[in-house]
Design goal:
Structural class: alpha+beta
Shape: elongated
Strand content: over 45%
Pfam family, one: LmeA
Order of helices and strands: HEHEEEEHEEEEEEHEEE
InterPro entries: DUF2993 (IPR021373)
Largest sheet: 7 strands, antiparallel
Protein name: DUF2993 domain-containing protein
Radius of gyration: 26 Å
Length: about 240
């Protein structure tokens, strides 16, 4: 009995040491990958990296990590024509992450995730300068907000024959993703004080698009929908590079 007791104690101690070593190793790996990703993407803040699965050390021996979660805020993506757009709360789940021994390179077989773009950020791409849409009529987009039921409410300010309308004209718009571009299109056209305006001229104000390119690791825009504080996007990709 004494020998069995000693054996069990040894097993428990060794098991505890293994768990401790495993957690220390995973913590080191998470810090290394986070640092490499911060450098690669030129991030102001260190991203959150969480390596899932236990034990970690057996995954290391296999040369690939089953599941890695990455989170970052305030990522600045390319928006075309030398412009940029801020992406908030980007969270990505990476599967099948192969890495080098010093974590200088790490590539995920697949990745899916979510992020958001505020209405204030999206508004930057709309026609915010007064533009003539008909003789004596100018208009511009002055606000975006949640229109409910997956729609964006677009506020359009108009001036008719030198008189600014007392209230903005509101239209509900649909938002879709096509390739790397978010598109906002009015479901119905605005009525600017009863003025006759060609559809193409009205849509030149109400409809706009925003390119979102250069997301981390090469992930791509997948879908988009309107939400309370902005548009929520989903992303996906394959052979996504976390480092290297």
């Amino acid at each position: 009995m004494r020998a069995l007791r000693i054996f069990l104690i040894v097993v428990i101690v060794l098991g505890g040491l293994f768990v401790l070593a495993d957690r220390l190793a995973v913590g080191f790996a998470e810090d290394e990958v986070a640092g490499k990703l911060q450098t690669r993407e030129n991030l102001a803040d260190t991203p959150d990296v969480s390596i899932k699965g236990f034990p970690f050390l057996t995954q290391v021996l296999g040369g690939a990590l089953d599941d890695v979660e990455v989170g970052m805020s305030g990522f600045v993506a390319a928006a075309g024509d030398g412009k940029s757009i801020r992406i908030d709360d980007l969270k990505a789940n990476m599967k099948g992450v192969e890495f080098s021994g010093d974590y200088s390179s790490a590539t995920a077989a697949t990745a899916t995730g979510t992020a958001s773009v505020s209405y204030a950020e999206l508004l930057k791409t709309a026609k915010s300068e007064p533009t003539q849409v008909a003789p004596g009529v100018t208009a511009s987009v002055v606000g975006l907000s949640d229109g409910g039921n997956g729609k964006i409410k677009v506020a359009v300010e108009a001036t008719v024959l030198g008189t600014k309308l007392p209230e903005p004209v509101y239209v509900l718009s649909s938002v879709t993703a096509q390739g790397d571009t978010v598109r906002v299109k009015a479901d119905t056209l605005p009525n600017f004080g009863g003025a006759e305006i060609a559809e193409s001229r009205a849509r030149a104000i109400t409809d706009f698009e925003q390119k979102i390119d250069g997301l981390p690791g090469g992930i791509q825009l997948d879908s988009v929908q309107a939400a309370k504080d902005g548009v929520e996007i989903t992303v996906k990709g394959s052979n996504v590079r976390l480092a290297g």
